[in-house]
Every structure is written in C-alpha cells, then in structure tokens.
Amino acid sequence: MLAHNVSAEIRRAISRGEFAPGQKLNEVALAERFGVSRNTLREAFAMLTSEGLCERIPNRGVFLATPSAEFITDTFRARAAIEPAALLWGTDLDVDRLEELNAEGRVAIEEEDDDLFIAVNQAFHHVVLSSMGSKTLGDTMDQLDAFLRLATLPILERDPSFNRRFIEVNERIVELLRNDDRQGASDFLQQQLLELSTEIIDMLERINNGEVG
C-alpha cells in the first residue's frame, strides 16, 4: 500500500510538470522526499514502469518515458473512450462545479498563470470522470494526466500558453450540458481529444526536426 501511495505521488508530480521526459529519477532524493525506504521506492518505480511511465535501464537506473507517437495516440484514445462516456452516462455530473472551474480558468488566463490554468483544466476533466463514481477510472485518469504532461512538456517549454485554448472547449461542454445535450457534449469532447492527439504528434515532430524554435 505504501508503494502504491508513493507511485501516486510521483504520478502527480509528473502531472505538475516537475519531471521532464527522459529524466533520471534520483532514488536517494525521492526516498528522502517521501520518507520511505529505497526498497519501497523501487516497488513504486516498478508500478510506474508497468504503466509505461518509466523505464528501468540496467546499470543506469530508472528514467521517465519519452512519449512516442504511438504512446500519445494510445493515451488520447483512452481519454476519448472514458471521458465522453462520463459526459453521456455519469450519474453524478456536477455541472455547477464545471462552470466554477471554467471561471477559475478564465481568471488564470487573465493573470497569465499557465501553471494554475493547467491545474484547473485537469480538475475540470477529473470532475467529469468522477461522475462515473469509479475509483478505478479515477486512478486511470491520474495515469493519463501524467502521460499527457510528459507528452506536452516540449511544447509548453516553447509555448507556455499552449493549454489556454482548452478553456473554449470546456466552456462549450458546459454550454451543451446546460442545454441538456449530453450526447452533444460527449461527441464534441471525443472529437476534440482525437484532433488534439494528431495536433500534438505533429507539433512534436516539428520540434524534433528543428522546425520549431
């Protein structure tokens, strides 16, 4: 259970952008940070490795994954399956809270606080998924958050405001929900996620080819 908690904390740290793709994870520093033994930390690393977030390289250590196009496509397909389903079938969808988060997102944009906006945007999608009442799906969303932060970090380094565009997507979702069009909200989010997957892969290819400074 302790190793599970530590893996969850590392996952959240990845989601907050504390680690970069390909970065080596320092066992001594992380064991001290979380107040656990290195054996417990290694168990947590093994969990993260099984999820595809980390890679253990013999005689070198544990490194964060560097997302491939296949990795990104798979991640977005997972989100495009579970989040639209929550909009369509979630039995406890808190539209008021989603609207509040959009207001917080607008404030973050006005204050040019991109880290805050990312956190608010993540919270928006967690509220959507929490309507399904499933801890398993909540844990899955934590994993997907970490995957997506790894994938988009190279983009955010060049354009910290990249995520601001999502406020319009989130506001449109709330608008459709307010009009009792859950199917429309579901279809809209699914389309947006699949299109974003292609856009991110294209941007990363351009960055890797030196086409984006």
Polypeptide structure, described:
GO terms for molecular function: DNA binding; DNA-binding transcription factor activity. This is GntR family transcriptional regulator. Keywords: DNA-binding, Transcription, Transcription regulation. Residues 1-67 form the HTH gntR-type domain. InterPro entries: GntR_C, TF_FadR/GntR_C, Tscrpt_reg_HTH_GntR, WH-like_DNA-bd_sf, WH_DNA-bd_sf. The N and C termini lie far apart (44 Å). The chain has helices at 2-15, 27-34, 38-51, 69-89, 95-110, 114-130, 135-158, 166-178, 182-208, and strands at 54-57, 61-64. By secondary structure, it is mainly alpha-helical. The protein has a two-stranded antiparallel ribbon. It has 2 domains: 2-64, Orthogonal Bundle (Arc Repressor Mutant, subunit A), CATH 1.10.10; 69-208, Four Helix Bundle (Hemerythrin (Met), subunit A). A hairpin with a 3-residue loop joins strand 1 and strand 2. The protein contains 9 helices and 2 strands; from the N terminus they run H-H-H-E-E-H-H-H-H-H-H. Helix 8 (166-178) runs antiparallel to helix 9 (182-208).
What is the total tally of β strands?
2
Instruction: Specify the structural class.
Output: mainly alpha
CATH class of the largest domain: Mainly Alpha
Write the CATH fold name of the largest domain.
Four Helix Bundle (Hemerythrin (Met), subunit A)
Give the CATH H-level superfamily of the largest domain: GntR ligand-binding domain-like
- The helix content is over 70%
Gross geometry = globular
CATH architectural grouping of the largest domain: Up-down Bundle
The secondary-structure element order is HHHEEHHHHHH
Low-confidence stretches: none
Strand order of the largest sheet: 1-2
Number of helices: 9
- Measured by DSSP, the beta-strand proportion falls in under 5%
| Total domain modules | 2
Domain HTH gntR-type: 1-67
Keywords: DNA-binding, Transcription, Transcription regulation
Organism: Corynebacterium lujinxingii
Protein name: GntR family transcriptional regulator
